[in-house]
Structures are given as C-alpha cells and as structure tokens.
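Forwarding these from the shared drive since the link keeps breaking.
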Amino acid sequence: MNYLVHLALNYPEHKTLVPGNFAFDLCNAQEKRTLSAAAAQGARFHRAIDHFSSQHPSIHELNRHFHPSVGKYAPVASDIIADYLLFNNWDRFFTKSYGEFSEWCYQQLSEGADILPQRVAGLVSEMVSHRWLDVYTSLMGIEKALKRTNAKLSFPADLTTVLPAMLEKEDLLGELVCRFYSDCILERESWLIPQNEMKS
C-alpha cells in the first residue's frame, strides 16, 4: 500500500516496471495469476520490495511506534505514513521536483494501462484523474488516506490515531524512513542485476 515508495524506486529510469509495480496491490488473486508478461515483471519487483520492507529494522521500529495506537494494524499505518515522510524528505533523494515526478507517474500509468487487467486499469485511470499522489503532500491528505483505509480493515480500528505519535516524533521517524529508502535503492539495484542478465 505504500504506493509512493514503490513508484519512487522506478523513477526515472525504470518506467516499464511502473504499471505492474503500482497495480499489484489493486489486483485480486485471479488477476495476479493471469497478469500479462509486461505487467508481471513490475509485479515481481513489487513483491521483492514488499519482502525486503517486511524484514527491514527501520520498518519494524516504525511499527513499534504505532502499535500502541492501532495494534496489529501498525504495518498498515506505517505504509501510509512512510509515504508522507518520504515526500517530506524528497530533496534528499531527488533533484527533480515532486510535481515532475507525479506527472511522470501519471504518464507511465496512463500509457501502460493496456497491459493491466481491465478492472484494474479502470481503478488506475480513476486514481490518475484524481491526481492521488497529491495525498502525500499534506497532513490533511494523509489523514484522509488513513480514514479511507479504515473502511478496508477486517476489524474496527482508527488509523488516524497514529498521527499524534507521528507528529511528536516526526524527525526521528523521518530518519527511519530515509534509512529504509536508502536501503531500498540498494535492494533495487541488486534485484535488477539478474533481470538485466536475463535480457542480455
């Protein structure tokens, strides 16, 4: 669900991964099994980063800060908060603006919609039309994202209750996310080496 982290790892050199990488979490089980070859590579990248994230000590620490507020849903909250904190530290990793990045993402997703399952392509088109990447640029946007996610949880919980902890420790948590994202960049390069060797 941490869309921004996943997309940022494809920017700007790896645009062919964007549709499958972004859409993976939107696909149901049947759609994941029948992804086109073009989308499947992006989906494999998505799974690799998810696996890496689940084992990273910075993410475990982020979860620990949110666990008192939302219990077992701390990892869900962490995904969304991590995107917000990455946006807040954007200039540490990128020379181009977040606005340029957003437009690049919208372009790749629009152009790549035809390799996605029809239902998912419709969802992606709707998200692009609403310019959903703006969500990560403000506390109000993040609060709305957390509230929307509440409706998808299996058991009642209010993810917005993590916001006081995030605001109180924003600098500390931001450093955790930056450490995590720096390691994600290294993981991306390690993942790409065998993929490039297969093509050659």
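-- next protein --
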Amino acid sequence: MTEGLDKMDNGKPCICPLAAESESPSSHRSDVERVVIGGRIRRMPIPRQIVGVPMIYLPLLFLPFVRLSAALAYWHLRVLGAENIKTLKDFLPDKASHRYDLKSQILVKKTLKVDIWSGSRFFWIFNCTVYCPYAVGLFAWHAYLVKVVENFWCPFHHSRKATYADATIDKSFWHAYPEDVVKLHPDDRDNPIWNAEAAATAEDPEAPRSER
C-alpha cells in the first residue's frame, strides 16, 4: 500500500498512513476553519452572556455517566484480552505543566458589577486547571476507546476512518480468523490502522509478512 490518498476500485479513498496523518486533529493546517467566538464575545448582549456562561456547568451532571460508559468500553476490551490500552491518565495533562497555580493565577478586568467570578483565582483554577482539562481528557479517552472498539469489530472503510489512526490495534476480529480475513476488501485487509503487519510492511517493504 503506497502512502498518500489513493483510489480504491469502487472510487472510495484508500485510508493510508499519510492520509491519516493529514487528517489528524493535532495537525496545524492553514485551511482549517477556525471557530469564531473571541471576536464576537464583547458584542454579545450582557443578558445573553449571563445566560450563556452557566450552561457550561450543566455537563458536570453527566460526566459520571461518560466515565461509566468509558469504563465499560475499557473493560469490554480487557475482558476480550486486549493489552496496552491507554487509560484516562494518558489523556490528562501533568499537574506540573499548568501555567498557573492558585497563587499566580492571573485575573481579568471585571466587566459587570454583578460579576463576582472573574475576580476569583479559585474560579479560574477550577475551570482551567481542573474542570476543562479533565472534561477534555475524559471525552478524548472515551472517543479513543470507542475507536478501538470499532477498529476491532468493524475493519470496514468509511469517510472518517482515517481519523481513527490514533487508536491503532494489532489486528481486527476478522484478521484473527484466516477463513474470514480473506473476505475483506483488500484495502480493508491491509489497512495499517487495524493491521500491524501492513503497517510494518509500509515502513519497511522488505520486511517479511506471515501468511494470512
């Protein structure tokens, strides 16, 4: 399989290492459409801001359920024999990496007389050091686990599969059984996201491959 975005027999794009890398969320491409918010916040009516800000805390009610869902996906994989699965800790920033602590946290200038939160260091520490990083890490871990599950059970192409390259596995369920792996489309059978042998061959074309 060549690196890049090739065409399959049915016209669908082939998911190759280069394609997966180019669609990685961590890649900084100039053509990525930015969310527009910082340039508009000051133009939003004050009542609208007062209503909008507290909405971000409603997800706190659901985080325990997201954690439970992620735990179920994790143990589903573990019970089936999976190893080397990332844990929530892998998606949380190191405590020492945070820019500020409670003593050094910077504050914004208050814009409302009723605004009592922006002048509190605890507010910013809770949100920017605890709540936001934990929520981002939890949802990222959950997404990672679901990708691993789909890569294992469903090694079939669709337009978003290249974004699953951050949840690679050694081989899918279909690859575990010689009588079934031959039924896969060649591009699915040799996709490096769920075929470690194909990934190794892509890196080293001279490397020997075991018989399917």
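DSSP finds seven helices and no strands in the chain. Residues 121-153 form the longest helix (33 residues).

- D.
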